[in-house]
Design brief:
Blueprint (H helix, E strand, L loop, with lengths): L2 H4 L6 H47 L6 H11 L3 E9 L6 E13 L3 E13 L5
Antiparallel strand pairs: 1-2, 2-3
Amino acid sequence: MSRSRLHNGDRGSAAVWVLACSAVVLAVGAVVVVQTLAVLARHRAEAAADLAALAAAGRIGAGGDPCAAARVVAAANGATVRACRVSLDPSGRSGTVRVQVSARVDLPLVGPRQTGARARAGRLPGRW
C-alpha cells in the first residue's frame, strides 16, 4: 500500500480540531465577558449606594429630607433608592442613614438584570 492511501482517512481532521478548539475559546471568552460586566454592575451599584448614604448623612441636622438627597445622588449614578431609613439622636443633629439601591444592567447573552447594594453612613455630633 502506498503512503497516500493510509492517510486518506485523516484528511481534514485538523480543521475540525481547530474549529472545535476555537468554539471552546469563544464560549469561555463570552462567559468571562458576561461575568466581568456583572461584577462591574455590582461595583457601580455599591458606589451609588455609598454616595447616596453619604449625601443623606450630610443632610442630617442641616434641614431638608436626607432621603431626598439620597434619591438625587443615586439617580445621578444610575440607581434607584429602594429603601432609606434615618435614625436620629434625640437632638436631631446627628444620626445614621441606611440606604438600599438597585440598578439595572443589560448583560449580553443573558438580558436585563437587577443588581443591588446597601450602605450606611452617619453624622457625629459636633461635626460640621
